[in-house]
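Write out the 3D structure for:
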Amino acid sequence: MARILLAEDDDSMRRFLAKALENAGHEVAAYGRGDQAHEKLKDDVFDILLTDIVMPEMDGIELARRAADLDPTMKIMFITGFAAVALNPENAAPKEAKVLSKPFHLKDLVAEVERLMAA
């Protein structure tokens, strides 16, 4: 089981992803904005940050950078329809971060989370 911090601004997608991960046995704290997720990171410890890239207030790349500063051992996965943004070296996303491109099947998400935890 992993403790997962989920940051996704689309309400229905956030609920859908959180439920799927919880059904797979993971503990999920879900937030609709990157700045809210960052505040939670200051007070709690998570195994994985699962974040959308394009969000208001604080985007997922900035959230990932700040998360890596707070806890360099935390694993990071981007979920996005804009994979090229995450992979662009100019944005300084954490190098070890994984990218899962939308659309994806929930079983792929769960499998990626399990791979991250096994690594």
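Helices lie at 11-23, 34-43, 60-70, 83-87, 106-118.
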